[in-house]
Amino acid sequence: MSEPPTEDEQTIDRKDDHIRIVQEENVETGGSGFGDIQLIHEALPEIDRAEIETSVEFLGHELAAPFVIESMTGGHPNTTTLNRALATAAEETGIAMGVGSQRAGLEETDEDLLESYTVVRDVAPNAFLYGNIGAAQLGEYGVEGAERAVEMIDADALAIHLNFLQEAAQPEGDVDARGCLAAIETVASDLSVPVIVKETGNGLSRETAARLADAGVACLDVAGKGGTTWSGVEAYRAAAVGDRRHEQVGELFRTWGMPTAVSTVEATEHHDCVVASGGVRSGLDVAKAIALGARAGGLAKPFLTPAGQGSEAVVEFIEDLTAELKTAMFVTGSASVAELQKTDAVVLGRTQTFLDR
């Protein structure tokens, strides 16, 4: 009889499961709220589209466009190729990129596994790259562990992800959330690079955004409802091992959370550096998010298929996003991202009702 997998082996296998399920199964929620956002058309833009400036300052660095390749993967040898393609494209196009949770890299010394993370800086020496660890693991890792995550990829920032609904739906989930805010505040104060706090598909309320701003984090990534449902992903994983209860919980909560458009507005009430992610699927969605106050827009799943095809396909997708964003800027009369942040946005329907709570 074979030995059951160790905790470290479970972490590694989970990374492979996640990518496979996101690619193969129906784990989209919809309802990001961007359909309720209308930008006001400017029939006389009085600008030259060819001269529109899409660059933006982001945590002390300049991005060529306000796009973030959201944290997706790493921690399994199978993910090295994906991260290489994504990072190569981020370097070429001058946008930001995050790696997936580095928990596996902090627990393992296997060179093939570590390469799934370290490859990003190898191929993107100048890109803005950020690391990633879970809030639930901060008590174990502390500032020292966070620094190790930064050093692993020579990161420009570190994301601390909040994924407690996912953990609750996960058969082996870590559901002790005590002391996380204090740990985040300590890391934000003592770490050598800026700290980003990001949700993972369920959004940040204005109350949570205020607490995180007070804790001194440098940026908030709302990662709201509307894209991949990690509760739904864990339901598939639970079903595969016959865990009926966790499967049921994962399915019940697959549409839980704050819509991304709502979370973007509420987070920007308390912080001036907000990334809107969660169901962002086009340059027009990014334009709407910026008009709501975001600094940039983040996408994850839409990059997976191009990443599997290679860096050239990723670059082409980024160029598509840029063309869409510039068109939205042109027809709102916005010559820069700063001007787009000031353009009029009308909020309709369910999104406005949510904001009126």
Provide keyphrases for this structure.
two-stranded antiparallel sheet, alpha/beta, disordered N terminus, 357 residues, 16 helices, eight-stranded parallel β-barrel
Characterization of this structure:
This protein has 357 residues and is of the alpha/beta class. Helices cover 48% and strands 13% of the residues. The chain has an 8-stranded parallel barrel, surrounded by 7 helices. Strands 1-12 form a two-stranded antiparallel sheet. The longest helix is centred in the C-terminal third of the chain and has 20 residues, at 311-330.
What is the compact description of this entry?
It is built from 16 helices and twelve strands.
Ends apart, CA distance between termini: 56 Å
Which structural category fits the helices and strands?
Answer: alpha/beta
β-strand amount: 5-15%
The Cα radius of gyration reads 19 Å
- The dominant shape is globular
Q: Show unreliable segments.
A: 1-6
Biggest sheet details:
8 strands, parallel, barrel
Strand order of the largest sheet: 4-5-6-7-8-9-10-11
Per DSSP E runs of 2 or more residues, the count of β-strands stands at 12
Mean pLDDT: 94
What's the structural blueprint in terms of helices and strands?
Elements (H helix, E strand, L loop, with lengths): L6 H18 L12 E3 L16 E3 L2 E3 L3 E3 L10 H14 L2 E3 L4 H5 L3 H13 L4 E7 L3 H16 L3 E6 L1 H6 L10 H11 L4 E5 L6 H9 L4 E3 L8 H11 L3 H9 L7 H9 L5 E4 L5 H9 L4 E4 L1 H9 L1 H20 L6 H5 L3 E3 L1 H7 L2
Parallel strand pairs: 4-5, 4-11, 5-6, 6-7, 7-8, 8-9, 9-10, 10-11
Antiparallel strand pairs: 1-12, 2-3
Helix pairs in contact: 1-9, 2-4, 2-13, 2-14, 5-7, 8-11, 9-10, 11-16, 12-14, 13-14
GO molecular function: FMN binding; isopentenyl-diphosphate delta-isomerase activity; magnesium ion binding; NADPH binding
Subunit structure: Homooctamer. Dimer of tetramers.
InterPro entries: Aldolase_TIM, FMN-dep_DH, IPdP_isomerase
